[in-house]
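Input chain follows. Return structure tokens only.
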Amino acid sequence: MEESPESPVPLKTKQKRGRPPRLSPEQIDRLRAMALDHPALSLGDLTRRFCTAENVKLASGSVRKYLDVAGLKRTRPPPDSGAVPQPEHAASGVPQDWRFTDVHRDEGDSDRYPHGLTDPEWELVGDLFEHVGPGRPAKYERRAVVDACIYVVRSGCPWRMLPKDLPPWQVVYGQFRRWVDLGLFEKMHDRLRGMWREREHRDPAPTAAIIDAQSVRTSAQGGPKGFDAGKKIKGRKRHLVTDTLGLLLAVLITCANVQDRDAAEPVVAIAKSKYPTLTKGWADGGYGGKALDTIRAVHGLDIEVVRHPGNRNVGRWYDPAQLELPTLEVVRGFVVLPRRWVVERTNAWTDRCRGLQKENGRRLDVSTSWVWFAHARLLLRRLAHPVSLATQPPEVA
């Protein structure tokens, strides 16, 4: 018998070894789009944001490799070049006058101290402080008691040093503590903030917010305090959430040793409980990390970290194929950051009151009420003035 020819042996195809890619081409495109939409995000923040959005687990090194596959690079500012930032209004050519003029001064009159309430101002909030219910009538007018509280926070004097023509300090202090327990100063500010937002043609319920913290020294009076190692301040820290106009939405006062990122979720929870419409926010580099992921997941508030343009640790993400290498110059000193300057201006408004330049109280709820009261007083002055001091500064002869 003739032997049958041997059947050809099939050749084995060479298979690619290694782990399969963790991301699909569509996911890589979404990662690329996210990096271009937020070019100032650090690699860690970009990794956490993408993993939360796509429900995947990736290391920062893997994300870096996928960004290289997508054609994205990161540029950093060069060493210190000594460039000085130019103010935004100087480039636009629009003259702006921010001088302190006579319109901003309040000399008072024969019956009223400077910064005391005027008749139009009292008409806006007088019903909040009037006595309602059984009991004997008040011996001292509520307006005089409120003026005494304004005198204390504006001048920074102790309760016992109130002028003799104001109600006795024991009466003023006792009534002030009752108002603190009722949360009356926060209600006062909430009413005035809604009125001011309507005057500025804004929705009374804000949708965007800015978060920041301010460390303040405490006096020898006592009470909770801590040490802020970054600012070298022993005292307390004011955590604020404001709207895009710089008006307060939430206030939380803690010891100064509490990190900004640790107090971010509690203060945002306070703001979201009052205004569920909040969807967007901005913060500085101190809030970067896992705290923002918790805020996005629990409260649905997308907070973007705004960093200094001269930050060499992060740099900027860009696409070399579509964009030339962006020129990042190192700047010295103060730089007006987008959105972030709003809350910094709010801190400056707080420091206008000498009673708030240092924490003098022992209780945190009392310190919180002082902040609400000081900003409510500022809104009263704006609303009662015939011309908006914020949008239409008066001409100077």
